[in-house]
Design brief:
The chain is 49% helix and 0% strand. It has six helices and no strands. Helix 4 packs parallel to helix 6. It starts with a helix and ends with a helix.
Length: 219
Amino acid sequence: MFPSLGLLSQIDCPFREQCHRGSTCLYKHKASHAHARRQLDREQDMAMKEEILLEDTVAQPQNAKNKLPLQPVTREPIAAWPSVDFKPSRTEHVRPRLEEKERATDSATSAASEKADQWRGLTLNYDSNGPAYDPATEKQAKVPQLKAVVGDKVGYLRRQRALETIYKYSLEIHKEAEPWAPARHAVLEEADLYAASVGGTYHGKLLTCLRSLKQQVKE
């Protein structure tokens, strides 16, 4: 009588997680944490797709003729430092100091150059040291492909879709730059989003970033 009336569905299963009846069990089972997490991810994915489609639709210009030509930016020349006539009294002590200063300058320049190219290591097709490196990326703009991260807190597919959307705006912003400049801009923007995200905040930060990029394209 109780099973036919469905009264057992209101009572927690006495076997709980050890129950092997699955969906045929007559008792009530609470959804697991992993199932709830997957459900939340699916809802956020659908919301992000709708927002990205809306952003892309609004960002498309209604008439290409209405676009204003970009005005070149003029910069004032930097005045040179005045020359100083310095005559050291002990040349044997000054020489090692100059050599040490030159080595420090070279080391700082090399470190700055290495840091500027760190974004390539986050991608597959732009990393010259990786097996999937595409030499064509140096001469023509191509969508960057992220490397998968073990224990990714957001999800690889979601990050890749976000990167591709940011890359579309970067192409408009860096029209006259190097072919790899839009990819660098998009990779760094997405990396900042990922680093600043905690739990389910990645989607909200992505929408804020897209609105900012949209405003830059209009300007």
